[in-house]
Amino acid sequence: MEVKKRIEELRRILDDAGYKYYVLDAPEMSDYEYDTLLRELETLEAEHPELVTPESPTQRVGGKAVESFAEVVHEAPLESLQDVFSYEELDAFAQRVAEAGEGVELDVEPKIDGLSVALRYENGVFVQGATRGNGTVGEDVTENLRTVRSLPLRLEGAPEHLVVRGEVYMSKKVFRALNAERERDEKPLFANPRNAAAGSLRQLDPKIAAERRLDIICFNVQAVTGRSFETHSESLEFLRSLRFPTVPHMEFGSVRECWERIQAIGEDREQFDFDIDGAVLKVNSLALRARLGSTAKAPRWAVAFKYPPEKKETRVTDIVIQVGRTGVLTPKAILEPVRLAGTTVTNATLHNQDFIAERDIRVGDTVLVQKAGEIIPEVLSVNLDKRPADSAPYEFPTVCPECGAPVRRDEGGAAIRCQGAECPAQRLRHIVHFASRAGMDIEGLGTAVAQLLIDNGLIQSAGDIYFLKARDVAALPGLGKKSAENLISAIEGSKANGLVKLLGALGIPQVGQAAARVLARRFKSMEALENATLEELTETEDVGPVTAQNIRSWLDSDQAMHLLGLLKKAGVDMTHSEDTSDRRFDGKTFVLTGALTKYTRDEAAAIIQRLGGKAASSVSKKTSFVLAGENAGSKLTKAQTLGIPVITEEQFEEMIR
Fold first, then answer.
1. What CATH code is carried by the domain that includes residue 335?
2. Closest CA to 322 of 225, 415, 425, 455
3. Residues 529, 493: contact at Cβ < 8 Å?
4. Does the annotation count 524 as an active-site position?
5. Which of 301, 544, 545, 619 fits as disulfide partner to 638, beta carbons 3.0 to 4.6 Å?
6. Any domain includes 334
7. Of 111, 282, 371, 614, which is the active-site residue?
8. Which domain covers residue 229, as residue numbers?
9. Are residues 105 and 173 in the same domain?
10. What is the CATH number of the domain that holds 484?
11. Which residues on adjacent β-strands are paired with residue 331?
């Protein structure tokens, strides 16, 4: 069949291109060519679904989400390694090994800081992948591993049965990009690439794992039929021939040579695209490994050398404040250059005001620094004996260094945040939130388009959106006349959204859609809200003193006044009216938990409030109903314990119909 031949040809071409791009880092095909061929394959497979196979390049996008991971018993144990911390301990290991055989050859490899997995192939096809777990039993993460682009899904000339051990990791580049995205979306940042990789590989939804762009390096043959190897290095060559990405590997004869290599890896660790947490010393002979065997915890034929965190003194020449995309003010120490863990360090994060105060860090101080987790430079302590006589305690700014707006400490937290409605550092975040579904719901104005508008000087704040011209938008790269007209139409349509949507869009601290609806009902117009006293705000239902102060402070700021002035000039509706005849949920309190499919939580809460009910954040004896979506957690458990009625999304729709 011609179609089948073409599909197989496309798969071979795409597999080869992927191997050269993701494993060899030597692409021979442009992204455009690759995408064109992939689209052709997707089209053919859609027309002939009977020809779709699990190892097809089209199957790397992530399959259906699962409720939990099944257990997998490992065919060969995934053992952990004994740690050593000095040359003497390495030498003792080598002597023990030498007693079991003459002319022992040792290998040194960088120890990748990731998540260990076992990969099973049957007749050259990847059929199962499992985490290490306790070494004997792991979790089935096959669908998530399919999304790892450097992992071959099909092997040419492979044995009938093959199990390979590898380490899943997140590259430093991807890690930085992921954390930048999470910061923009006001999500907690990952501490390091290993945590990010582990969290990504154990996502119940493979599509999330696919978005995280994980990578893998393979370093051991666990089981194989029809092949035998005399040495570890020979088995690695075998894996390379099958197009597995393999660990950088070298062979040495003596402990002294191994020690020199270990030191060199430590010096060059910043050159690797992945994080390492040490170096591994292994016996190369597989026969000798078998004779040495293992203890209850680790093999006797390998050890892991752990690099001690390097610490050095240097001087703080200045303390500067950086304003993040979420408005958080983060202090940074500017340091006299010092060499640490293979790189020159010139600055270190000071985290927050409390961190500085606890250590009494001052400009001019001599401080002890190290790389936390071998990644982020941090200040450990101050050498008070070297403190200048004229030093003064550091004073945290009371206004934003980017825009001059007041700053406020988060209630119950350590973060100090800029309150500016038009702060340049938060510009993208403010505009994207303003246009989001939780805000003014302007279709077509996502992050990419907002960034494009900002970069080309067309908007500086959310208020500028309403003064965009279709011809200017159409002239931007990637946008045409039709896209520009649709965007302008969506912007114009949003003017009629009313006060509830507007209040939710403005980004006032602690004012989401629920609080926005309460405020709109109480004050009816933006003008009345602007004239409200702190006492009137505090007396409003579900608006506490902290939220009331946040609202008053925001409304009184020059930037907020300027933004609201632009919106008024553009003709944005700032009033509220609603049909209050249907109060079917009067006196009822709902708690929402889990992921809903037809509504966001804010949208469901808005419906409940419109019908006279209340949407609360926690379950109590006063709760009337718990609306539970997919993957509902502790709130569902508490509701069941208290005997609170639990309803599904379908039952909720019946109630509001």
1. 2.40.50.140
2. 425
3. no
4. no
5. 619
6. yes
7. 111
8. 71-305
9. yes
10. 1.10.150.20
11. 321
